Amino acid sequence: MKLYILRHGETALNSKGVMQGWLDEPLNENGRRLAVLSGQAMKGIRFDRCISSPLIRATQTAEIILRESENAVKIEIDDRIREINFGDLEGKSLSEMGKEGYLFYTDPLRFAGFPNGESIRDVCERTQAFLKELIAKDDGKVCLISTHGCAMRAMVNCLKDDPSDYWYGHAPYNCSFTIVETETGTPRITAVDKVYYDSSLIVDHFRQKD
Predict the structure, then answer these.
(1) Which terminus of the chain is less hemmed in, N or C, by CB atoms within 10 Å?
(2) CATH number of the domain encompassing residue 89
(3) Rounded to whole angstroms, how far apart are CA atoms 80 and 54?
(4) Whether residue 207 has pLDDT greater than 50
(5) What range does the domain containing 143 cover?
(6) Rounded CA gap, 79 and 104, in Å?
(7) How far is 43 from 141, CA to CA, in rounded Å?
């Protein structure tokens, strides 16, 4: 089994350094462009399944990549892989989040969570339940999974040699992939933050806004 776990393309809120969480923001022009470029570069990859977060930025990215890579598979929706809920702080930038935003990035696994929202451990619990369910089947299929930055890091955290290194130093880039492969039921991470477009197009909005 091979899992291509994808962070969605850029949105207008991404470009402003805003934490959108469960806000249902569509892709902007650059987000669609990155998805098109990624899909075109993935034409040789045959996907057997596609599973997406219900949020529109994730489903739009999956639709574009499937179309451009010439994969005609149905998009399945799974609520467990939606982004972290920022609660009362949704729609805020990191600087506006204050202490919660600082701890979210500097001490994520001990971060108590956002007011009326979720903690990192909450997101780990639901995304890892999704991942373990897929791995338990180990049906040899190739699957595209369209999700979000924090949710992606949470999903694979249980597979890392050092789970305390939650962020790998930064948030995943838009339209980047973490790839997980299984051999006789044992999963391993084989790529992190892989992009299929020119790396000169990568922008780390959140680092810029800190």
Answers:
(1) C
(2) 3.40.50.1240
(3) 9
(4) yes
(5) 2-209
(6) 22
(7) 17
Query: Which tokens is 120 given?
Result: 């990192």
Per-residue pLDDT, 209: 37
pLDDT tens string 21-45:
999 999 999 999 999 999 999 999 9
Tally of domains in the chain: 1
Choice between 138 and 81, residue whose per-residue pLDDT is larger:
81
CA proximity to 111, closest of 160, 153, 81, 82: 153
Q: How far apart, in whole angstroms, are the C-alpha atoms of residue 35 and residue 196?
A: 9
Which residue, 191, 198, 144, is CA-closest to 172? Answer: 191
pLDDT at 123: 98
In SS3 terms, the chain reads as: CEEEEEECCCEHHHHCCEECCCCCCCECHHHHHHHHHHHHHCCCCCCCEEEECCCHHHHHHHHHHHHHCCCCCCEEECHHHCCCCCHHHCCEEHHHHCHHHHHHHHCHHHCCCCCCCCCHHHHHHHHHHHHHHHHHHCCCCEEEEEECHHHHHHHHHHHCCCCCCCCCCCCCCCCEEEEEEEECCEEEEEEEEEECCCHHHCCCHHHHHC
- In this structure, the strands spanning 92-93 and 186-195 are unpaired
